[in-house]
Amino acid sequence: MRRLPETAVDAQRRDRRSLKLTGTVVNGLGQSASFLCIPWVSSQVTSMLNFSPYPGTLNIDVHFSGIQKMLKRLGKERIVPAEEGFCDALVFGGTIAGRYPCGVILPLVPGYPTSILEIVAPVHLKQALGVADGDGIEFEIYISVAYDV
Question: Which domain holds residue 89?
Fold first, then answer.
């Protein structure tokens, strides 16, 4: 039997542990589309996640106010602003609904809602998954297991 070539998501799964989460799709502010279209943002996200992101995010409330604090401790990859007036953001690879590669973008700004995670993918997730605000969703975040010694 011939083996298919390993995908970027397969490699991430092999080299990392994962955190499986459920949450509720919620309405966002509508600002992520313009942010993801900025060339230096799109380039960094594409490089980290191995896909070109659809210009927009799916916002998920995981109903756990400690999620961002936990992810901030574990995060290693980040978007670094190339211009004044922008913030850093942590980036985690993952899979959503067991079907699509995705990334979690965690803006490092004060006052950001503590239980909300922004999900990017190569497709428009609401359309591809047939979900709307208020629907439940499952996703997996890959966490690096490499430790400095």
Answer: 17-142
